[in-house]
TrEMBL record:
<protein>
    <recommendedName>
        <fullName>VWFA domain-containing protein</fullName>
    </recommendedName>
</protein>
<feature type="domain" description="VWFA">
    <location>
        <begin position="1"/>
        <end position="157"/>
    </location>
</feature>
<dbReference type="InterPro" id="IPR036465">
    <property type="entry name" value="vWFA_dom_sf"/>
</dbReference>
<dbReference type="InterPro" id="IPR002035">
    <property type="entry name" value="VWF_A"/>
</dbReference>
């Protein structure tokens, strides 16, 4: 405990969503991992799931806090089903490219296979693949993962974190279903 923490270069914004979006943390550089987790766990989930409002808010936050010093990353976690138009996903990905860097978008299904989350990741992969290459700071490839239990969820996040080690990223986390 009493040891000073190094200042992170990453900024974390945590968005929690069901049919609406709550901003749990916004552009946080200072919180310890424990504080970040405590912030997320203080919320409870319920209601329907609306992927469109969550992605639009993530895009808004990405634009508000854009920095050319960091690579944009979205981790989108859900245990629910919703629908979302491909154009909504294309918009956030293309906007990121227009701002200067391709978006690294990771979907995580907390539960059984989700065709919608897989499609969201595929759209992001397609747009990311058409972005101009950045040889100095290549973006981490977008992914789709399934986490059937808490152990697999932790492994998934560790895998994503490892993939982001070299390019520094801003993290946007969407989540439903934890209580």
């Amino acid at each position: 405990m009493g040891q000073p923490h190094a200042i992170r270069r990453d900024a974390y914004t945590v968005l929690l969503f069901n049919e609406a979006v709550s901003e749990c943390l916004e552009y946080d550089f200072a919180s310890t991992p424990e504080r970040l987790l405590d912030s997320v766990l203080s919320y409870s989930a319920g209601g329907d799931t609306n992927f469109t409002v969550a992605i639009r808010r993530a895009q808004s936050m990405m634009e508000r806090h854009w920095s050319n010093e960091r690579s944009p990353v979205v981790i989108f976690l859900s245990d629910g089903e919703s629908s979302i138009a491909d154009v909504t996903m294309q918009n956030i990905c293309l906007r990121s490219i227009a701002l200067g860097k391709p978006l690294s978008f990771h979907t995580v299904a907390f539960g059984p296979r989700s065709a919608v989350l897989q499609r969201m990741a595929n759209v992001a992969i397609d747009v990311q693949g058409r972005a101009p290459p950045d040889r100095q700071h290549p973006a981490s490839p977008s992914t789709y993962s399934e986490a059937l239990d808490n152990v697999r969820l932790a492994e998934t996040f560790l895998g994503i974190a490892e993939s982001l080690r070299k390019p520094r990223g801003s993290l946007f986390l969407g989540k439903t279903g934890f209580s």
